[in-house]
């Protein structure tokens, strides 16, 4: 069984789903130094390595990988090369292909109320500091919003500064109200503006958190979602899973 074929919603409960502005940033440590790529193999074997990095190699026919890779390369690297100072191109490609597409797709699949947020506030401490020393503004990396929700002394023993503390209070209030009350607001207060439920369209509303004063914006992901959704994935899971089971049986 695989979620692509057999996804079933087990309970009708509201859900918060979101993503950060630079989800793919955490991959850069293994790909770039401050100016250029350090692993040139990614350029040479782009189509194959991209499919592994974004996991679609598990359900796409091998003969389709080149077509998908060529389309993606043209979209995010118009020159056809992973040139110097293309850090943001790489972050956007990984963020859109591995996170944005999946987040919107899951929101569409759920029949219960869904509330979507876009987290774009950079704390003083970032998980990026655990991976590399790149001093580039490339968006808020995967997991950085957790620094506003939970205290993790093993990663950062310092107290939050005033701005970070205000954003932390905001997130805690939003999550608390969502879990406690029937109606959700964009700032977690009783008098705050309502947080619109997700309805898929070209202009659906999402909560944009880039400071302690959040706001509702119109969907910035529609074109990105449409691009990744139209790629010629073959979803060849039955054959893949059957072969894996055969291999396991042979080994046993």
TrEMBL record:
InterPro entries: AB_hydrolase_fold (IPR029058), CarbesteraseB (IPR002018), Type-B_Carboxylest/Lipase (IPR050309). Residues 2-228 form the Carboxylesterase type B domain. Gene3D superfamilies: alpha/beta hydrolase. It holds the Pfam family COesterase. Keywords: Glycoprotein. It comes from the Eukaryota. The keyword Glycoprotein applies. This is Esterase FE4. It comes from Schizaphis graminum (Green bug aphid). The gene is ESTF_4.
